């Protein structure tokens, strides 16, 4: 099946400057890829900056990301999730069949293109479709259930960039296959809660809802359309179109007039079939049992169309009351079968890591602290320089973090670097020490120094570090 209404990636204005467009000369050769549109930005400009909505995560920001990565891995391990990495690029068809046309992700945001071999492919806009594809492809249904899989990495959505909304965004994604009991829904929400809580984020709202089975959803959709049709003129233009293509999406619209109108619309919860109602009731009881605070949001429908029954989202709000979805997920009991696998219930959620990092910064959560080198290794002369590489690795093997400036010849220059690092110990290896098999160890805190044999160097350095730690520094770990 060839999808009909797909936006193919277009070039974008990546600069604030006016795009430079050279007039094509008559003798110019045709582009290698015939369908490529004329670039809007000259090569010199776009070589020097990242694409709009895509950014570098610089070393300064990494301590926040490291804390997030560590929390994700720890939660994955504690809740029995195994890591799976799926490709960044898949057949376009996979995403269209999973997320479905009529959603913003497929209609407007997917980065789709044709490969040189003629395949229609897309950059993943989320993980679940790829993870389900891998589950089916590798016959994972034969494994003992439930199967818990964790992924993390960048996903791509051609959204309108602004703070907290990017075109390349990072997600942490958790999916569980093979269990339909609502206790799993509660456990998955508990896990999301645990990650958010452990990251030090507070004032976070967990919203839950149930959208039932495809059948009860159809009945609800009918009632919703009947209600909205009668007041169509009050909807924004996009929602008037959605009324025909995907009416449930109207509940997701952020336009004031649509929010106002849909607040009086019929609610999905009133149209649930008996089983879905019982499922939702049990979920709420489990959440109460866990003392997990939640809000029932009857308008919550999610932006992807594979969900059945439970859906949930995690929201933060800033001082101005602006709200951000930090994550979301739900059940998708039919997706695996729809993609050609055995009928297998499933549930999962994705966390938006860029937004989590923004929220950590905004609420002044402490980032991860990478250990800093406490020792500097200085060398003087050719022989000392040669020997210092070995000494460096001896110290590093014994868990002592060392830094150096091997490229600098002068001792003065090296000592300046040592001072900038604020190290507690400087080791000096001169020509004489290199020949003698010794090294000078200088305690930068007390100002004392001693000469030790190179065999005893590690012990001498550790001793000073231990004494310093007991005086004022946090205890280092040197096992
Ligand atoms: P989603 O709600 O589309 O769910 O995305 C999860 C999270 O990714 C959002 O709550 C938000 O924090 C973040 N996010 C989405 N778009 C952007 C953007 N343009 N810029 C920054 N952050 C963004 C899913 O993707 C589902 N696959 C989750 C799931 C897993 N459901 C079942 N299993």
Quick tags:
alpha+beta; BirA Bifunctional Protein, domain 2; binds histidyl-adenosine monophosphate; 16 strands; Rossmann fold; disordered N terminus; 8-stranded mixed beta sheet; 479 residues
Question: Quick gist of this model?
Answer:
The chain is an alpha+beta fold. It has two domains: about 60-210 and about 270-360, Bira Bifunctional Protein, Domain 2 (BirA Bifunctional Protein, domain 2, 2-Layer Sandwich), CATH 3.30.930.10; about 375-470, 3-Layer(aba) Sandwich (Rossmann fold), CATH 3.40.50. It has 16 helices and 16 strands.
Number of strands: 16
Major sheet: 8 strands, mixed
Question: What's the CATH topology name of the largest domain?
Answer: BirA Bifunctional Protein, domain 2
Specify the number of helices: 16
The poorly predicted ranges are 1-34, 475-479
CATH class term of the largest domain: Alpha Beta
| Biggest sheet strand line-up | 1-5-6-11-10-9-7-8
Shape: elongated
Helix fraction by DSSP (H/I, runs of at least 4):
25-40%
N-to-C span: 60 Å
Mean pLDDT comes to 89
CATH architect. name of the largest domain: 2-Layer Sandwich
Question: Which cofactor or ligand species appear?
Answer: histidyl-adenosine monophosphate
Structural class by SSE content: alpha+beta
Q: Give the CATH superfamily of the largest domain.
A: Bira Bifunctional Protein, Domain 2
Structural description of this entry:
The protein has 479 residues and is an alpha+beta fold. The chain has 2 domains: 59-212 and 272-362, BirA Bifunctional Protein, domain 2 (2-Layer Sandwich); 375-468, Rossmann fold (3-Layer(aba) Sandwich). It is 36% helix and 19% strand. It has helices spanning 43-47, 62-78, 92-99, 104-109, 128-137, 182-198, 214-229, 237-245, 256-262, 274-289, 335-338, 353-362, 382-397, 411-421, 431-436, 457-471; strands at 82-83, 89-91, 112-114, 120-123, 147-156, 168-177, 205-210, 295-296, 308-317, 323-331, 346-352, 375-379, 402-404, 425-429, 438-443, 449-453. Strands 1-5-6-11-10-9-7-8 form an 8-stranded mixed β-sheet. Strands 13-12-14-15-16 form a 5-stranded mixed β-sheet, sandwiched between helices. The chain is elongated. The chain binds histidyl-adenosine monophosphate. Histidyl-adenosine monophosphate (HAM) binds next to strand 6, strand 10, strand 11 and helix 12. Histidyl-adenosine monophosphate (HAM) binds at residues 126-128, 157, 159, 164-166, 169, 171, 173, 175, 303-304, 325-329, 348-350, 352, 354-355.
């Amino acid at each position: 099946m060839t999808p009909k209404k797909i936006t193919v990636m277009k070039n974008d204005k990546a600069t604030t400057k006016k795009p430079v467009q050279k007039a094509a000369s008559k003798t110019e050769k045709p582009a290698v890829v015939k369908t490529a549109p004329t670039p809007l930005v000259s090569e010199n400009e776009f070589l020097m900056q990242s694409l709009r909505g895509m950014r570098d995560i610089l070393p300064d920001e990494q301590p926040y990301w490291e804390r997030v990565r560590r929390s994700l891995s720890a939660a994955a391990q504690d809740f029995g999730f195994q890591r799976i990495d799926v490709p960044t690029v898949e057949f376009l068809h996979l995403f269209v069949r999973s997320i479905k046309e009529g959603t913003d992700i497929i209609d407007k945001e997917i980065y789709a293109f044709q490969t040189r071999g003629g395949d229609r492919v897309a950059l993943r806009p989320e993980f679940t479709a790829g993870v389900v594809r891998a589950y089916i492809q590798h016959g994972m249904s034969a494994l003992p259930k439930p199967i818990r899989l964790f992924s993390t990495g960048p996903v791509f959505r051609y959204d309108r960039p602004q703070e907290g909304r990017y075109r390349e965004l990072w997600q942490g994604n958790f999916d569980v296959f093979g269990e339909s009991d609502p206790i799993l829904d509660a456990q998955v929400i508990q896990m999301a809660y645990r990650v958010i809580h452990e990251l030090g984020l507070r004032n976070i709202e967990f919203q839950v809802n149930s959208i039932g089975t495809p059948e009860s959803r159809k009945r609800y959709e009918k009632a919703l359309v009947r209600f909205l049709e009668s007041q169509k003129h009050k909807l924004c233009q996009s929602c008037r179109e959605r009324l025909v293509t995907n009416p449930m999406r109207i509940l997701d619209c952020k336009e004031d007039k649509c929010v106002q109108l849909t607040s009086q619309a019929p609610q999905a919860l009133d149209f649930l079939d008996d089983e879905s109602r019982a499922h939702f009731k049990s979920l709420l009881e489990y959440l109460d049992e866990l003392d997990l605070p939640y809000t029932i949001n009857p308008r919550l429908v999610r932006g992807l169309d594979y969900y059945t029954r439970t859906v949930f989202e995690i929201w933060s709000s800033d001082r101005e009351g602006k709200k951000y979805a930090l994550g979301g997920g739900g059940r998708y009991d039919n997706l695996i079968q729809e993609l050609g696998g055995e009928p297998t219930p499933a549930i999962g959620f994705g966390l938006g890591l860029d937004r989590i990092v923004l929220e950590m910064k905004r609420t002044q959560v402490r980032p991860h602290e990478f250990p800093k080198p406490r020792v500097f290794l200085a060398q003087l002369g050719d022989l000392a320089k040669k020997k210092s590489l070995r000494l460096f690795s001896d110290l590093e093997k014994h868990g002592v973090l060392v830094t150096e400036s091997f490229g600098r010849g002068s001792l003065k220059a090296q000592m300046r670097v040592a001072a900038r690092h604020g190290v507690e110990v400087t080791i000096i290896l001169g020509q004489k020490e290199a020949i003698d098999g010794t090294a000078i160890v200088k305690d930068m805190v007390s100002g004392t120094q001693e000469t030790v044999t190179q065999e005893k160097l590690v012990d001498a350095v550790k001793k000073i570090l231990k004494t310093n730690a007991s005086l004022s520094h946090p205890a280092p770990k040197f096992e």
